[in-house]
Design a protein that fits this description.
With 318 residues, the chain is of the alpha/beta class. It is built from 12 helices and 14 strands. The structure holds iron/sulfur cluster (SF4) and magnesium ion.
Length: 318
């Protein structure tokens, strides 16, 4: 029988602040799962530390709340162990683009088939609003004693340049749009980033709901790429000219910020995933979760030689 949003709710009481954009994201993730009707036994949510880290607590699927910046490696391991799972990362901007930046970059090289949702509010919300890597130079939120002295990174450009094959941005309070983008990201075969503009009313008084939705030049500051005829999808992954054109177009479009802020799919290409490459190398499907690891109560693998090799030698001085 089809499941509904109420079936996805857990008993945990949310401790997010009133008005937090995280509520919109939670709603969009649950709505996307309901629309897709994925087997909930095969959906895993993985989070790092931060306010966004609570997300797996509130959705009735398998989930793990890991360490700061370590959600992508956990998610990669889960996907490698069982490629049949749908693995969704829910991390914050400080978690993903700051502390976990090395993992964020290197996941791109692998094109592993997981979906990264980044709750981007420009601050480290859980620790009282320090500037995160996406807060722009010179900005002074109410949580900072002085204007931010560092430049910001552009996560979309980083993702595009290090190999993410689906790169999108959405907005926490446009749940309908966000839901559709999350669905596309989940269905995309390869590594997806959805950078989500997420108001944090407690610590970021610049990027507020009012700011994002303000009418500038007769239309909302936030606008949808798909309504402008923009098409970020590479239709022929063997056509280098088309790839270059789409890459440059996405990088240029992602720089647009100020009077107008675009949301939507900036870049998309279908390329072999890490699972495909492993299959090609070993000429068979690789799914360790199906390996027989025990027979008659004994492990099928003899690790005694390995233990001999890693035996710790004791050296006594004198
Ligand atoms: Fe949301 Fe900010 Fe409160 Fe965290 S600190 S729950 S991001 S409003
Ligand atoms: Mg943050």
């Amino acid at each position: 029988m089809a499941y509904k949003i109420s079936d996805l709710k857990t008993d945990y009481q949310s401790d997010w602040c009133p008005g937090c954009g995280d509520f919109g994201i939670l709603n969009a993730i649950m709505s996307a799962l309901v629309d897709l009707q994925l087997d909930l036994n095969k959906v895993v949510l993985v989070s790092g530390i931060g306010c966004s880290g609570k997300t797996p607590h509130y959705i009735n699927t398998s989930g793990i709340h890991t360490l700061h910046g370590r959600d992508i490696p956990f998610a990669s391991g889960i996907k490698l162990a069982n490629p049949e799972l749908t693995v969704i990362v829910t991390g914050g901007d400080g978690n993903t683009y700051g502390i976990g930046a090395g993992h964020f970059l290197n996941a791109g090289r692998r094109n592993i088939d997981i979906t990264c949702l980044v709750f981007n509010n420009g601050v480290y919300g859980l620790t009282k609003g320090q500037a995160s890597p996406t807060l722009k130079l010179g900005m002074k939120t109410k949580s900072l004693p002085l204007p931010n002295i560092n430049e910001a990174i552009n996560p979309l450009v980083v993702a595009i340049s290090c190999g993410y094959t689906f790169v999108a941005r959405s907005y926490a309070y446009d749940v309908k749009h966000l839901k559709e983008i999350i669905k596309q990201a989940i269905l995309h075969k390869g590594l997806s980033l959805v950078d989500i503009l997420q108001p944090c009313p407690s610590y970021n008084d610049i990027h507020t709901k009012e700011y994002f939705e303000e009418v500038v030049n007769n239309s909302k500051r936030i606008y949808k790429l798909e309504e402008t005829g923009y098409d970020g999808e590479v239709k022929d992954p063997n056509n280098n000219e088309e790839i270059q054109q789409k890459l440059l177009q996405a990088i240029a479009k992602s720089q647009e910020w100020g009077e107008k802020i675009p949301i939507g799919v900036f870049y998309k290409i279908n390329l072999p995933t890490l699972t495909d490459r492993l299959k090609e190398r070993y000429k068979k499907d690789i799914n360790p979760s199906k390996d027989n690891i025990e027979q008659n109560g004994k492990p099928t693998t003899d690790i005694s030689k390995l233990i001999e090799e890693i035996e710790v030698k004791r050296y006594i001085r004198g």
